[in-house]
Amino acid sequence: MNELLVNVLEVLGLAWWVEVVTETPNCTYYFGPFATAKDAKLAEPGYIEDLQQEGASGIKAVVKRCKPAKLTVFDEEKEMKPWKNLFPVLSSSL
User: Fold this and answer.
1) Which of 47, 58, 67, 86 has a CA-to-CA distance to 8 between 20 and 30 Å?
2) Are the CB atoms for 43 and 56 separated by under 8 Å?
3) What DSSP string runs through 1-20?
């Protein structure tokens, strides 16, 4: 029954997700869906711990209702900024 509820909420865009943003790598991760904010909040520490074990840093998490198009979003432009500062002549080709 809970799985059916989650599926309906997901289709309607009313499901709860854990959104985790990391500075390094510069990514946004979505974990879910969940039927309630409480369920999502209970799962949040496990996702943060997994990312820390993988070497991620600058981790911020929030529980929210959304309907993510992708579960992992990598911001390539922000990741490339250090190279632009080191090699300004080449920055247009990066």
Assistant:
1) 47
2) no
3) -HHHHHHHHHHHT--EEEEE
